[in-house]
Structure formats: C-alpha cells, structure tokens
Design goal:
The complex is a heterodimer of chains A (573) and B (418). Chain A has 573 residues and is α/β, with parallel strands linked by helices. In chain B, α1 (16-27) runs parallel beside α2 (64-77), α1 packs parallel to α6 (307-325) and α4 (168-179) runs parallel beside α5. The longest helix of chain B has 19 residues, at 307-325. The chains are: A alpha/beta (573), B alpha/beta (418).
Chain lengths: 573, 418
C-alpha cells in the first residue's frame, strides 16, 4: 500500500495517529507534535517507502529546541559579486571530490565551507572504511555508488597520493545456525556485484586472524574492503582541486539563495553574494536546509551519531583485517561497527549508531564507550580498555529512505543534490563525484559550451611524508631543508618541515586541528601534550598571528589567554 | 651512514636520570654519549622553576634548572658527547645496539653501543585516558604542558582553571597559575586521599586558599570551541561517579594531573619485559633488564616523586652499563623479588645473587597504612624488617639491602603487615 493513507496507517500502528500527513511536490510531509525524539524518528521511518519522493518530517518534539548549524562569526563582503560557474556547498569528502572532478573542465569553481577547514564533520569523524558493498540492497543508489566507488579508490589513491590499505574484511557470524545461510548470503552478494566474496570456516577465520573472538562461527571474507584516513582523502581531493584552479573558501556559510523563479541567481553567504551558474548541494547534515533555501525540500536529514575509539599503535600487530559481527536480524540502521586497522598503524573500534536531535552533537558519552568496550572490543581478544588513546563522535546525515539522493533538482534548474550521504558515503565518494560533476556540466551546457580544462593534472603535488620515506631519502630531504630534521610531534614522528608544509599548503592549515588533519601532529598517544606548545609557536611564526590568536579549530577556540612576559624569550627549548 | 660511530654506552635522554647515568658510566671508564630529542639538556627539570629539588642529594633546596645545571656542567666538564635536538628513529639489537637517529646537522645517522641506558622519562596521562566525555574544545591541558607554556614560553593558558588530580605537578601548577593571575577554582581528586606530597598540599594549595575536593572527579567537558565548564561528580568507594551528584563548574581551562606513564615504547622491538604495575622494564638491582646490555633508570623505570632518586637510579644504571660494556660482567643469577601484601610495586623486580654490592630497593604501599612493618623474606628467612609509623602511596620508600644477607633461594618476597 502506498500514499498518504498508507503513511497514516503506519503512524497509527506507532500510536501516532495525531500526526498530520500531506503530500507536497510528491514528497510526504509530516506535521504535528510528539513527545520524544525517538517518536520523531519512528514517524519518519514509518512514512518512508510509501511511494513518495522523500519524507519531509516537520514534526515538533515537545520541549526540544530547533536544531541550527554552527555559523562562523565573520561577516564581511569579501566575496560579494564574485562570479563562478559552479559553487559547491560543503567541504566534506563529497564536496571536495566534486570540486576536483569539476576541475577537469574549464570552469570557475568555488567550494564554500562554513567550518574552519575541510573534512570537519562526518568526513573526518568516521572509521575510514572503504566498504565492499555487502550491506546495501539491490536497486539502491548506495549499492551502485559503493561498488563503483570502491573500485575507483585504487586509482584515486595513486593519483592523489593518499594511502589505501586493501586489508579485506571478515564479517563474522555469531550464531551457529547463521552458517546455514552462508551459501545464500554469498550468492546474494555475488549477484549484487560484490567482488571476490568467500565463505570461510571457523577454523580458517582463526588461522587468518588468530586473536579473533571465540564466539565467531565462520565468516564471509570480502577482499575488496579497504581502509583510508578519511580526512586525508578529503584533503587530497581539496588540494588537487585547488591545484587545478578551484577556490576553497573556509569559514564561509551559505545563508540562503537569491532565486530568480526556478533558478538560483546568487548564493548568499556571510561574505557576500556569489553568482553561480550551477550550485551543488553537498552540505552533509544540513543538505535539507540548503534544499529549503531553493524551495526544493523533499527530504529531511536526521542525525545518527557514531562514536569511535582509537587504540595505541602498539596494537597494530594484533589484527590484519576489518572485523565486524553484524546482527543479521536488527532493527537499527547500522551494521553496528567493528574493529579496523587504520592506514597509520592504529586499530580503531566503532562506530555505534544513536539517533540524535542535534546534528552537530559530537559529544561523547559513557554509554557510547560502554557499547564500544562491551560489544566491539572483544572481537579481538587481545585488546584492552587501556589501549584507548582517544575517542570522538561523528553524525551521519541520514534520510528516512536510507538512500543517497544524487540528482539534479526536479524543480530548480541549476541545482544538483548530493545529499543523505552516510555510510558507505566515503567508499562511494569518487563515484558520486564523477556523476555529480557530470550533472553540473550538463546543466551548464544548456546555456553554453563547456570545454575540458587543458591544464588539468590528476596527480596531486604531494609534499614529503617522512614516515613513507626510506632513511636515505629522509636524509637527503633533511640536507635540502633542515626543518625536516627536527621532530616536533614525538609520538607520530612529525617534523617541523612537514608542519610548515601543511600551514603553507594549497588549503592552508591555520590552526592545530587543521595541522593534525594533514600531518597527524598531535594524533599520537600523548594527544598533543608534548607538541602543542611548539605547534602554537610554529603557527604564530608562519602565519603572523599572535600566539594567543592561534586556535585549536574554529574561531574562538584560542589555545592561550595571554602572554605573560615581554617578547625576547628563548624558544625551542 | 657507512662509517658507524661506536660507543661503549649510549644514554637515551638527557634529563636527570640520563645525565647521572652518563656521568657514572664515564666515571667507570666507559666511552659514553647521550642522545636527547630536545634542544637543551635537563629534561622536565627545565620547566620546574619551583624549589625543593636536591634535599637528599645535595642537602639543598634547589630549583629544577639549578639541580639540572649541576649535572649538565659536569657532563660538559667531562667532555661527554651530547647530541641534542636529535631524535631516535629506530633501535635495533645486533652485537650490541644500533641506533638510527636524525637531526638537522647530520640528517640521518647511526650510532652503535655495547650497552644502552634508557632514560626516556614519562608522558602524562590524558583526559581521554581517564575517560572524560563531552566535546573536544580548546583549554584541556595536562599539567606538564601548562607548566611548559607558562614557565618556558611565557603564555597563560587560561584565566579560570579547574585542576583534576592532586598529583604533584597539578598542585604546583595550581600555585603557579595563581601567581600568574589566573583563578584556580579548585583541585578535584577522585581518590579519598591526595596523590601528591603532603608538603605540596600545604605549600601550593593551603597557602593560597585553593580548595581540594576529595572523592570527586570531572566526568564531562562542556563547550565546543573553548572550554565553558566541566561537570563534577562525587564518586563512591569503587571510584565510580554517583548519579545525581553532578555539579556544573564554569571555567575556561581544565588541567589534568592524573598520572604519568613511563615511555618505553621505543624499547618494545627489543623484546623488553615490562612490569604491568610500574610501566617500566623489569630489572635487577643493577637496573639491568631482561635484554642483555639494556639498562633502565629514572621515571622510565618507575615514576619517582623525588628527582634525587631519579639521579640515584641513573648512577646505578650508568655504572652497571659501563661494567657490562667493558666486559667485567658476570652472568646474572636472578631470583624474582615479588611484591605481596599491601605493596603496590617494587623495583627492582629481580635480585642478582652474584652481585655483591648493596641493593637499593624502592617500593610503594598500596594504601595508607599506620604502624606497619616491612618484611623482606627469602623462604623462611627474614632478610630485612623495618617499622614505619605511616606508609602513604604518594611517597616512595627506599631501603638498602646488604648483599651479605642474600642467600640461595627461589624467590624473595616483600610485604607490609601489622
């Protein structure tokens, strides 16, 4: 059954008969009031899959404030009147990859990001997994983009110079009777197009991964699963985009559109109004808000938080594969996380999945940690709570349909949506970017000819990463530039030269978290205890900021309150 | 990297332990060099501008830099090679030890040693390692980082501070921040008793009217850009937060003094045996680890509360390393020294029965105990007994065992009892 009546019926079942249901532009709209966030979420899901284009969930939750995005404090007119062919809203992995794909064409491209850096939200707050495509169902965009994206990663890694470890994953089976389904799951996955899937026995799992939980009853092995550092992938796309002529504007928030009937004429930001031929909505958890600015709201994003814990590098030898033990029968919309290797040599565990009313709620809680420790840590029997060096949370941008929205707008001539991108969004990003860029070019071509960019260079100019050099290469580099000879971050062994490169890179890092995202300084087991004081001085020296103006991340996150002594002190102690 | 410089003893770290070790090794006739990752020697003493150092060793109240200067000058006078601003990239064992290092002048180079003294100190436990939840704003620092920012770089990290943990560095920073014009709202300690030295409670908190809250901890940090406040909670005897006792304290800085972790990660590839309780290598009384030729001292061996004992262990390790390198060594005949009743840990963890010099034994009690007796037993035989009016975990105890007392046995047990 489909249509408004079907939605009503589903809501009645949930005891939410008071919710008003209507249809607007082929989307179903829910209005009314409920008592809890869980009810809000349940109502949204009840309305999904009933033959509409999407679910617009406008239900109010009693006692809950409306959710609003962080906006940068700056107000100026520095971008007023700037004219671009394409404006990309959002500097996550999708936005940055779209920007890079668009630079294959001879276009003036701007990427606007409200945060102080790219990869600030879900694109740095995830487990870095390049999924094999096992989870998404046939007929979904997720499946198509995941399979294509996974395959494209090898080339992307080679061109853009980021690390990709195709370690493969073991999907562990928990119940003995699951084994009966092993052949069926394998056949189903193979039919979907998941490459190389193997069904392996309990003993074989034990051999491949000796520290695996004794609860496992066999596994599916997926050789195409990989891991990357998601923030480095995002950065690589952004930097290559900039090298090929795109411009990245940080601390720049989109506040609305100047509409000319069914066309976006101007993109209104806190830095003035930008003109644009085409606009790409890659705004992550706020993509529905951006759609609303163009009167094209046919979906609602709700946030699903996931917490991830990073383990000390001393654990790196304890596990080779991505390990997960999903619940085959599950009411949640997540596979429940696992324990992964990372490209840097740590292990990580997570993420869990918790529906949250605030989309920028990155706070961690004891409950989340308990889930990780109780439910995931035991997948590898050698891991201890004391191995945890840090933890953080991210929020997935979910639609109630649980599928990606990747399409030109049906109602706005020059808008392309890349929305509802959550897991496996990172894995899908290269493929999404390819399609979205093509959609944008098609839109531009309606009005004028779009020519290829004759100077496009797919290879990123990669600055030295000393950890990937041999000792003799390292020595040669230090002889050329002694700044590479001084180690600033002791835990991750990051030199001053690498930090200076990050500060002066194509997308400059002007705060400590931004440096961390590029070169890992402060990401090790002391969590910046030793290097923070040096980093503050290096940033101040390189950028001309006063030390007390140097921030950890966003404006306002100043690390120091004041200088206590007159200048002339001895540095570098 | 072709012609490899070769030394009898290489000391890793030029803090108080490393300096003392180098001097002792030099004094014993070894060719010794020191490698240090910072620009200047002295280790953490460089930033400890308060006094109270050297009471045992020099019978004087020195500042940290003054204390360090004593040994830095001696190292210079002795002409001991000191590589500063030099980072150890890789440590391998092959006919002794091969260290691959880098610095600005020599780029990447290798040094070879017959014996190695690891005097690598410790790092601070972080907010995440004590499981504080919430966002990750600016303004959460470990006490040692704050000390460096204020005392060496001349920066004030915040204006209204909460300190978690009553470890000595935290107490000292409470006073230091107050003197620099910041407000210290309070020091919160999860345990029912302070973890720092009594003299620091008096001199750093009581003298400045800074409240100390026992059996309370910080459970969450609030604020997304800069710290805006913290949640404080009372804890039960199990040290778990008691629900319903949360209190919000506005502040812009949270400073952690919640423990130190000996830094021995660089030694792991050598197969060194670590003590779960101290975090340092398991050693005999000459501070010799299970890896032949590898010695450990100072805070990398176990966290000390007085630098004087750090220097003492450096001397022991340096001298023993020199003897090892120069070939005067005998095959050790080790028996385990086991910490039992009411002993938190003991160093050394082995006694070498072949070594006939007084053995220094350091231990800490598990909890505060009054009128107790320490027993050192070899089978039925009492090797040593000593009465204590009070034993407090923050205060390390030190005894010296006469080698004449040591007899053939399978194990020696140290315990505290009534």
């Amino acid at each position: 059954m489909t249509g408004v009546r079907a939605v009503h019926k589903a809501l009645n079942k949930l005891g939410l008969a008071g919710i008003e249901v209507s249809s607007r532009h082929q989307a179903v709209v829910l209005e009314g009031e409920v008592e809890s966030w869980d009810q809000y979420v349940a109502a949204g899901y009840a309305a999904a899959g009933k033959g509409f284009r999407g679910v617009v969930n406008d239900i109010q939750v009693n006692g809950l404030q409306g959710d609003t995005p962080y906006l940068p404090p700056d107000r100026d007119n520095s971008l007023e009147g700037e004219d671009f062919d394409a404006v990309i809203i959002g500097g996550g992995v999708v936005g940055c990859a779209v920007a890079r794909e668009l630079t294959r064409w001879n276009l003036r491209i701007a990427l606007v990001e409200k945060e102080d850096d790219v990869a600030k939200q879900a694109s740095s707050r995830n487990n870095g997994m390049i999924h094999p495509g096992l989870a998404p169902s046939r007929g979904t965009k997720k499946l198509d983009y995941n399979l294509r994206g996974n395959e494209m990663y090898s080339q992307a890694a080679a061109e853009l110079g980021f690390e990709l470890k195709r370690c493969g994953s073991l999907v562990l089976l928990e119940k003995p009777w699951y084994r009966l389904f092993q052949p069926a799951i394998k056949a189903w996955a193979t039919k979907k197009g998941v490459p190389g899937i193997e069904s392996i026995s309990r003993q074989s799992v034990q051999q491949r991964e000796p520290r695996v939980t004794s609860r496992q009853q066999g596994a599916l092995f997926l050789p195409s699963t990989g891991v990357v550092a998601p923030y480095k992938v995002t950065m690589a796309y952004a930097e290559n985009a900039v090298e090929n002529g795109a411009q990245v504007f940080l601390n720049t928030a989109v506040l609305g559109f100047d509409m000319d009937r069914d066309r976006i004429r101007g993109v209104i930001t806190n830095r003035g109004v930008l003109q644009s031929g085409v606009v790409i909505n890659a705004a992550g958890v706020w993509a529905d808000r951006v759609a609303a600015y163009a009167h094209d709201r046919f979906f609602t994003i709700h946030g699903r938080k996931g917490t991830i814990a990073i383990l000390d590098k001393n654990t790196s030898s304890l596990q080779k594969y991505v390990l997960g033990m999903p619940q085959l029968v599950s009411k949640t919309h997540s596979k429940g996380g696992g324990v992964n290797p990372t490209v840097e040599g740590n292990l990580l565990m997570g993420p869990n999945a918790v529906e949250v009313p605030h989309r920028e709620d990155w706070g961690t809680t004891p409950q989340d940690m308990e889930y990780l420790v109780q439910r995931l840590m035991g997948l590898n029997t050698s891991l201890k709570r004391g191995d945890i060096i840090t933890y953080f949370a991210g929020v997935r941008a979910c639609t109630f349909e649980e599928d990606f929205i990747i399409q030109p707008s049906d109602s706005v001539q020059n808008l392309v949506h890349a929305a509802g991108i959550q897991s496996p969004g990172l894995a899908s990003a290269p493929a999404i970017a390819q399609d979205v860029a093509q959609m944008a070019v098609n839109i531009l071509q309606r009005r004028r000819e779009v020519k290829p960019n004759p100077t496009f260079r797919p290879q990123r100019r990669v600055v030295p990463d000393l950890s990937r050099l041999s000792f003799s290469e390292r020595a040669e580099l230090i002889r050329k530039n002694p700044a590479y000879g001084r180690i600033v971050c002791r835990c991750e062994v990051i030199s001053e030269g690498e930090i200076v490169d990050a500060i002066n890179g194509p997308v400059p890092a002007t705060n400590l978290d931004a440096i961390k995202r590029r070169v890992r300084a402060g990401m090790g087991r002391c969590q910046g205890g030793f290097c923070t004081p040096s980093l503050v001085e290096i940033v101040a020296r390189e950028t001309g900021l006063k030390p007390q103006e140097v921030c950890k991340g966003r404006p306002g996150s100043n690390l120091l309150a004041a200088e206590t002594k007159a200048p002339g002190r001895e540095a570098n102690v | 990297m072709s012609s490899m410089e070769s030394w009898d003893v290489i000391v890793i770290g030029a803090g108080p332990a490393g300096l003392a070790a180098a001097l002792a090794a030099h004094g014993a006739g070894a060719r010794v060099c020191i490698v240090e990752r910072e620009v200047r020697p002295g280790g953490i003493l460089k930033q400890c501008i308060h006094d109270g150092f050297g009471l045992v060793r020099f019978e004087q109240k020195l500042s940290g830099p003054e204390y360090a200067w004593h040994d830095i000058r001696a190292v210079r006078d002795a002409g001991i090679q000191l590589y500063t601003d030099t980072f150890l990239l890789q440590l391998e064992r092959e006919e002794g030890f091969v260290l691959t290092l880098q610095n600005k002048e020599r780029a990447v180079f290798q040094l070879k040693a017959r014996a190695l003294v690891a005097a690598t100190g410790c790092r601070e436990r972080t907010s995440r390692q004590v499981f504080i939840y919430g966002q990750r704003p600016a303004g959460v620092y470990t006490a040692g980082t704050v000390q460096r920012l204020i005392n060496i770089q001349g920066y004030l990290p915040g204006r209204r501070c909460v300190i978690l943990g009553s470890g000595d560095i935290g107490l000292i920073m409470a006073r230091r921040l107050t003197l620099e014009g910041a407000e210290v709202v309070g020091v919160y300690e999860i345990k029912a008793e302070p973890s720092g030295l009594s003299r620091n409670i008096v001199q750093c908190l009581e003298d400045y009217n800074i409240p100390l809250h026992l059996a309370q901890t910080v459970t969450a940090v609030h604020g997304s850009e800069r710290v805006e406040g913290v949640s404080i909670c009372r804890v039960g005897p199990d040290l778990r937060p008691i629900p319903g006792t949360e209190e919000y304290i506005p502040c812009d800085t949270l400073i952690l003094s919640v423990g130190l972790i000996p830094e021995n990660d660089i030694l792991r590839p050598l197969g060194v045996e670590l003590d779960r309780r101290t975090g340092g290598p398991r050693v005999d009384q000459r501070l010799h680890s299970n890896v032949p030729g590898l010695f450990s001292c100072g805070n990398a061996l176990h966290v000390n509360d007085l630098v004087d004992y750090v220097s003492e262990s450096g001397e022991t390790a340096g001298k023993a390393a020199a003897e090892f390198a120069l070939g005067g060594r005998k095959t050790p005949q080790r028996v385990p020294l086991l910490a039992r009743g009411n002993i938190q840990y003991v160093v050394p963890q082995y006694l070498d029965l072949e070594h006939n010099a007084p053995a220094v034994i350091y231990f800490r009690g598990e909890c505060t105990l009054s009128r107790v007796e320490m027993h050192l037993l070899s089978g039925e035989k009492v090797l040593m007994r000593r009465r204590y009016a009070v034993i407090r975990p923050p205060e390390m105890e030190r005894v010296v065992l006469n080698p004449a007392e040591l007899t053939e046995s399978n194990e020696i047990i140290i315990s505290l009892g009534g």
